[in-house]
Design a protein that fits this description.
single chain; alpha/beta; TIM Barrel; 2 domains; three-stranded antiparallel sheet; about 40% helix; globular; monooxygenase; FMN
Length: about 300
């Protein structure tokens, strides 16, 4: 059994969080990750409604034995924090407040009886979330799928571990037991995993996203802002998104086109043009597999590898 601060604190058996991927991580995916021994986080994206969150929470709660977690984009709460109210109404155990200063929201999370964690991409981010009073941090590297920073996972993880007394998790490029074993051996308390789960049948989103991920190699990603600009998603400029390459990125990435042009050329229903956010571990996803099976395999293999040196 892989026992860490994360497993002891949450009462889980696998030191793994399912990433709160907006538009992909709903209640079914989160619940299956939790049922397998980790904790799946539902992605509470800025466009989700309280009704959607309540419905997805019911699914996750039934599958996962009542344990819930959510992830929110902190920068989007400044204009409207009602989504946080909707999340806290579901009585989660963990709330991830990432991509921005969580200070205005951490007290509310704690008052609701939940742990507050934040993904960070730099040491400067670490100092901000430490001051905000979060309970743990996730060092998210440039390899990660979706929105992320510009420092690789291993350099960032080492620097964060050397710079804080908070529990530290790792994210970015972790998609197998080898990856989990590596970050645990380095001193992390667990991992946050996204890309490894993206081809699972429990994900929300178009079928083509699963097919494209299975067909992709680890060189088939690009760090870009064209999908945000095409869909009028107001992400702060410091965070680009890592996605699978396709005809759209070949045509528009790095071109400097305006948002109207990008929006006119975009079609989310077309596999050649629609966004599939995924990380550099894409080459490790070779088939569509149930999320619970993936989590159990990661845990078993990590334990076997760490036992060699235990």
């Amino acid at each position: 059994m892989l026992e860490t601060w994360l497993t002891r604190t949450l009462g889980i058996t696998v030191p793994l969080l399912g990433a709160p991927m907006g538009g992909r991580a709903g209640g079914r995916l989160a619940g299956e990750v939790t049922r397998a021994g980790g904790l799946g986080l539902i992605g509470a994206a800025r466009y989700n409604t309280p009704q959607w969150l309540a419905a997805e929470s019911a699914v996750a709660r039934e599958l996962g034995g009542g344990l819930l977690g959510f992830g929110l984009m902190t920068w989007s709460l400044a204009a409207d924090d009602s989504l946080l109210d909707a999340v806290l109404a579901e009585r989660p155990r963990v709330v991830s407040l990432s991509f921005g200063d969580p200070a205005p929201y951490v007290p509310r999370v704690h008052a609701a009886g939940a742990l507050a964690i934040s993904q960070i991409n730099t040491i400067e981010d670490l100092r901000i979330v430490e001051a905000a009073g979060v309970d743990a941090v996730v060092a998210q590297g440039h390899e990660a799928g979706g929105h992320t920073g510009r420092i690789g996972t291993l350099p960032l993880l080492q620097e964060v571990l050397e710079s804080t007394s908070l529990p530290v998790l790792a994210a970015g490029g972790i998609a197998s037991g080898r990856g989990l074993a590596a970050v645990l051996a380095a001193g992390a308390e667990g991992a946050l995993v996204g890309t490894a789960l993206l081809a699972s049948p429990e994900t929300v989103g178009p079928e083509y996203a699963r097919d494209r991920l299975v067909a992709a190699s680890s060189t088939d990603t690009v760090y870009t802002d064209v999908f945000d600009r095409a869909r009028h998603q107001p992400w702060p400029a410091r965070w680009g998104g890592r996605a699978l390459t396709n005809d759209y990125t070949a045509e528009w990435h790095g071109r400097g086109a305006d948002e109207e042009t990008l929006a006119a050329a975009y079609d989310g229903n077309d596999p050649r043009l629609g966004v599939v956010y995924a990380g550099e571990a894409a080459g490790l996803v070779r088939e569509q597999r149930p999320a619970g099976e993936i989590v159990r395999d990661i845990a078993t293999r990590a334990e076997e590898l760490l036992r060699r040196f235990g």
